[in-house]
Amino acid sequence: MAWALSMAMAALAAVTSPALAFADEATPAKTDKAELPEVVVSGTAGNEPSTEKTGAYTTRRSGSATRLDMTLRETPQSVSVVTRAKMDDFKQVNANDVLANTTGVSVEKVETDRTYYMARGFDIVNFQYDGVGLPFTTGNVAGDIDTAIYDRVDIVRGANGLMSSTGNPSATVNFIRKRPAYQFQASTGLTLGSWNTRRLDADVSGALNAAGTIAGRIVVAKQVGDSYLDRYSPEKTVVYGVIEANLGDATVLTLGHSHQKSDGKGGMWGALPLYYTDGSPTNYRTSTSTAADWARWVTQDDRSFVELSHQLNNDWQIKTTLSHNRSTADSKLFYVYGTPDRKTGLGLYSYPSMYNDVNSQTLFDLSATGKFTLAGRQHDLSFGVNWSKSKMDDISHYGVGIGTALPDITNWTGNYPQPAFNAYTDGSAYEDKRNTVFIASRFNLADQFKLIAGANRTKAESTGYAYGVSSQKNASKTTPYLGLVYDLTPYVSVYASHTEIFNPQSEVDVSGKTLDPVKGKGDELGVKVELFERKLNLSAAVFKIQQNNAAEQAGYIGTKTYYKGIDAQSQGFELDASGELAKGWNLSAGYTQLSLKGSNDKDVKTYVPRKLFRLSTTYQLPFMPQAKVGGSLNWQGDTFRDEGSGIIIRQDSYATMNLMARYDVNQNFSISANLNNVSNKKYLTSLYWSQSYYAAPRNGSVTINWKY
């Protein structure tokens, strides 16, 4: 607990020290300086409405789908919003927690420190930060994205050609960062949880000068502890700082940097075998791990950004963003492969390796947003350019002793001598570039009828190699966006939309020719409703998603793999609700059902659940307003994986329930408790790969919060 006490004292000192850089709240800023004019810039988080201190489970407006300033009801696409209140209520401290409780999204935890995300049957490969981002370098996320620094998370389902012109027609996840407050505020929280988990959060914000024209914010989080998995002890440190300066009545400059380091001691590379040599399924203890006792996976993520926004007049704004990201990973890992014998447990073999990689990204975005008059009506317009470069360098050092027979892992202690990692090396070095020009407009055709039309012209090119295979690719495409919204009443709208996306690929066919880019498109019809003074958002949608020419392994010529392009189609419907049902009663819920077929009309990606239900709700007790109670329920339909030779691995449908309670002792102090997987359900984290491991059993935590 020494680290916790040290950080708590540091946070307290930062809050109370007279030498603190934040301006003394006792010296009020002049009204004309402190109350700055509202600047609304599309596609940026700095001007997105904050969900902090609202206690709400929804927000009215979001630019995450179109770059235009519209309400959720006016947006002709499915959008879910995870607010700060929901994250705090259910202790959703990482991206996995957030997305696993979001309508239409499944989280495929293939390993302890690496995760895939799916929506509408396809991999989510676009994460954005304040509306700016690139597709994943490797198709998945390594490490643990902490949520302490975010105000909310927007999830736009389907293809999102205006905001993410390259990628898959699945979803775009937009993390909206916290921004400085001009009135002094501070908070800290200490959490104690199962398996000796300890977490400290601190957040301080306020004006930095007496005039109230400059404000700053610092967010710190530290988490350590053990795990339900044998030998696994995850640890992470998060630091975020941001400064906002009003250079005039119409110009705002923002500078920020975030740092996160995750250290997974004893983490798994790969996971448990799913079946025995006789084809029957394995059934290990929930805590079983294949990791050696020396295994370690350290990831570090640093993100710096500069934003400059200027309001030309009441109708037009210009926004420029420059970001630089650097992610590194250093690991010593132990992979286990093979198929065990049911009686002896033998038949597994070792594969130790050491990896180092660096991924650096530079992104620039310039946009203008405003209004114009045509045919006697006022319309909205947004246009701009963005440029990005991503460079990946990694090297693999393979360990001596690959193929060594292992004992039965049922009660294995991870006792495997750490080898020398000099058997041989391999790696990759490649660079991706994207250049984009975009334009979008909302035409006010009639009081009840709006047309949203736009296009995104992107050129994508790559050079380099990856493990002996060329990564050379070059493609350009214009992706259209079209949406129609008709207001049946001031609170009910129907909509239709069409949007596209594409993704270059470097895989070659049997003739050695590089496959054409993957192309994807999405069509959607829906209805959206605002109820209870616009505090509750409801939506229902039917969708059809098409992905064409995605590379699939087709065979070998000598030792080289060749691929073929395959098509897949997803169609289904979604229901979504978020907001306040009654005073003190918040709700977030959604149901998704889909089919996923290949070009031969057969089911594909059978590991993807065809049915998903999400529900989270909290209620502030009217007879005891200091108390809040709540619960969440996640259910998914059955999934399976065909391993060939008549071996099919199945996971039946299952549900998990979580509970929460919070009591405000006074206006400064509160205590909360969370209990997860109440029924202690045993289930696999994913069937995405031919290996998997078990999800966490029943666990809980208690948090003491202080705020000012």
From TrEMBL:
The keyword Ligase does not apply. Residues 1-23 form the signal peptide. It is found in: Cell outer membrane. Residues 72-170 form the TonB-dependent receptor plug domain. Residues 44-64 have a biased composition (Polar residues). It is a multi-pass membrane protein. Belongs to the TonB-dependent receptor family. Residues 43-64 are annotated as: Disordered. It comes from Undibacterium hunanense. Keywords: Cell outer membrane, Membrane, Receptor, Signal, TonB box, Transmembrane, Transmembrane beta strand, Transport. Residues 274-678 form the TonB-dependent receptor-like beta-barrel domain. This is TonB-dependent siderophore receptor. The keyword Metal-binding does not apply.
